Amino acid sequence: MLRPSFILVLCALAPACKESAPPPPATTAAPAAPPAPAAHTKWGVIEGRIQLSGTPPTPARQPTIGTVVSVCGEETEERSLVVGAEGGVAHAVVSLKDGKALPAPVRPAPEPVLDQKQCVYDPPVLAAKTGSTLVIRNSDPLVHNVRAASGTNRAFFNVAMPLEGMSVRRQLPAEPGEVPIHCDIHPWMRARVRTFDHGYFATSGADGRFRLEVPEGTHTVVVWHERLPEQLHTVTVRTGETVQVDARWATTDLK
């Protein structure tokens, strides 16, 4: 257990323990909020499964360091590709290409939560709305820091988390894109947040399945995974109908 005096010394000496100044306020006007769900909007469902055919590669094992072995073990498992039963690919991000032009979803996007457990980020991939608040937790009795990049700003935020059970809240960028996150103290700890300027997105579960409730009409479904080529699927959804969209790759497609 780290003594408070040790933590204070560590934070005084290590740049990773100092949170960077927030980015300067934008000089352009904030984008208009998407319209609220119209009373006459008719809804359907897109659901499906993300799968990898063939035998997936064995996840790489990464050594930890002596000070964390008692909590995290001597190695951690690399989690950029998580494949479950029947080839289901977890943590793929599914979204609608035309989402910004649509009425707001029936249900708002859930609050994104990133935890630090046994020296890995959980989950390794999140999807969230632009400008929303990311909740960051530390479930380890260890000092971690969370550094997020956005565009050319490699320290969009950088916050130290020295206490087990603590949580902080940080705002995500106002522009859609990808927010890489890592820990300077434990460099094998990495995660990504995909941000969207609409609410039509989901991540696949442990079995590779996802579900989106969408307005009636024709939509282009975008399936993204950091280790696999992006896929686009155009589907037409009618009121009350459930349309199946399955995305499959072979292990030879892996980056």
UniProtKB/TrEMBL annotation:
Residues 20-39 are annotated as: Disordered. InterPro entries: CarboxyPept-like_regulatory, Cupredoxin. Gene3D superfamilies: Carboxypeptidase-like, regulatory domain, Cupredoxins - blue copper proteins. Keywords: Signal. Residues 1-21 form the signal peptide. It comes from Pseudomyxococcus hansupus. It comes from the Bacteria. Residues 21-37 have a biased composition (Pro residues). The keyword Transferase does not apply. This is Copper binding protein, plastocyanin/azurin family. The keyword Nucleotide-binding does not apply.
